[in-house]
Amino acid sequence: MKTLKLSFFALVVLCFAACQDDDDTPTVCTQSDWVGSYSGTVTCDGDTDDVEVTITASGTDNIVIEYTVTDTANTVVLTTTYDPLPFNSCDFSNMASGGGFTASIMADLSGNSLSLSETLSDSTTTSTCQIMATRN
User: Fold this and answer.
1) Residue 25 pLDDT
2) Order of strands across the sheet that contains 76-86
3) Distances in Å between the alpha carbon of 98 and those of 21, 72, 80, 95, 109?
4) Residue 41's pLDDT band (cuts 50, 70, 90)
5) Which one of 31, 68, 72, 114 counts the least CB within 10 Å of its CB?
């Protein structure tokens, strides 16, 4: 009988432990969560520079991403604009091709942190850039 009581007690404890409140609610991002200015670094094929990213709204369901890369002398090296891009909550992935080039872009928003990856390729070369930035 003691074994049965001990087993029952262990089962009750296990049930209470299993029923604790887990925070499994996925984070949902809206267009306004994406919109803003971000500062960070961009690493392209091993070279790292400073980057400023600006995300603006386009209509009600899209965002426009523009980033400017500057070198150590604060000279603008590159400005790129992607518009308009549909997003899926806190991330998106988009691919386009034309003129012998293929471009893919993926981004993830986690609170104030933006991670953006782009790959550009043609028949002979592939270039990959990774942006890590924080909302200003």
Assistant:
1) 60
2) 76-86, 62-70, 47-58, 36-44, 126-135, 113-121, 101-110, 91-98
3) 50, 33, 17, 11, 28
4) very high
5) 72
